[in-house]
Write a structure and sequence with these properties.
Order of helices and strands of chain A: HHHHHH
Largest interface: A-B, 82 and 73 residues
Helix content of chain B: over 70%
Number of strands of chain A: 0
Number of helices of chain B: 3
Helix content of chain A: over 70%
Order of helices and strands of chain B: HHH
Strand content of chain A: under 5%
CATH superfamily of chain A: NADH-ubiquinone/plastoquinone oxidoreductase chain 6, subunit NuoJ
CATH architecture of chain B: Orthogonal Bundle
Radius of gyration of chain B: 17 Å
Number of helices of chain A: 6
Oligomer: heterodimer
Largest sheet of chain A: none
Structural class of chain A: mainly alpha
Shape of chain B: elongated
Distance between the termini of chain B: 58 Å
Structural class of chain B: mainly alpha
CATH class of chain B: Mainly Alpha
CATH architecture of chain A: Up-down Bundle
Shape of chain A: globular
CATH topology of chain B: Helix Hairpins
């Protein structure tokens, strides 16, 4: 019972944060809604017996990514920059398509045979299991992620560099 | 009634849809970018739920890789927005309609 109450609280917080993001007139407020969304998802990860992923969620998403968004928004001073919509029909068509998508996703999820009640690994084993898999079975993707970060760093330096005045 | 994987999948679908609505409706590039991140997070939630209810760690590992790639993506995307802002000081996605630098 407690589990259901906690799930309801965090799910509502996540949805409220998400709606806050898309309704916010000001990009800074949207970033704060994003923070609420990420934190409640992290809490749900803890409920799903994934404490390590929850920790990474708090550090990488709620910490680094939101701060980076806020940093760039404030650096460029562009909190309010959205003109009038030229074609309002796009807005209603977009919402209608998205609602259709949810209906389809929920229909598929309800119709599928889902696994129920398998006993999860105990939380204190979580990091050990993840580490063993990461450094044996998933070693190549791990290296590729490292190479990706290197390429990303070089790309950012190249993009941010001002061209020298001729 | 107890909590099952279905609840998490429905929550994930709802969050994915809200992110999709944001991408389709909003025209501020920063908000569009945030909504893309929300959609990634919605999928992460369903992956974690799969990992929990199938009792395998692979879903959690996939989420870790998604997070790594999302971090790199945000860094490069924001750098592109900063570079674009120097050329053309606007945040309206509809105003950014040339490929020429």
């Amino acid at each position: 019972m407690l589990e259901i109450i906690l799930f309801a609280c965090f799910a509502l917080a996540a949805i409220a944060g998400a709606i806050w993001v898309i309704l916010g007139k000001n990009a800074t407020w949207s970033a704060l809604g994003l923070l609420i969304n990420f934190c409640s998802l992290g809490a749900l990860y803890i409920m799903l017996n994934a404490p390590f992923v929850a920790l990474i969620q708090f550090i990488v998403y709620a910490g680094a990514i939101v701060v980076m968004f806020l940093f760039v928004i404030m650096l460029l001073m562009v909190a309010r920059g959205e003109g009038q919509d030229k074609k309002p029909v796009q807005r209603y068509a977009g919402i209608a398509l998205a609602v259709l998508l949810t209906a389809g996703l929920v229909y598929v999820a309800v119709g599928a045979t889902m696994p129920h009640g398998a006993l999860p690994a105990t939380p204190q084993d979580n990091v050990r299991i993840l580490g063993l898999a990461l450094f044996s079975e998933y070693l190549l993707p791990l290296w590729m992620a490292g190479v990706l970060f290197l390429i990303g760093m070089i790309a950012v330096v190249m993009l941010a560099k001002r061209k020298r005045e001729a | 009634m107890s909590l099952s994987s279905l609840h998490y999948f429905i929550l994930s679908a709802i969050l994915f849809t809200i992110g999709g609505i944001g991408v389709l409706v909003r025209r501020n590039v920063f908000v569009i970018f945030m909504c893309v991140e929300m959609m990634l997070n919605a999928v992460n939630l369903s992956l974690i739920a799969f990992a929990r209810y199938l009792n395998k760690a692979d879903g959690q590992l996939l989420v870790l890789f998604v997070m790594a790639i999302a971090a790199a993506e945000v860094v490069v995307g924001l750098a592109i927005l900063v570079a674009l802002h120097r050329k053309r000081p606007t945040t309206d996605a509809d105003e950014m309609n040339v490929l020429r630098g």
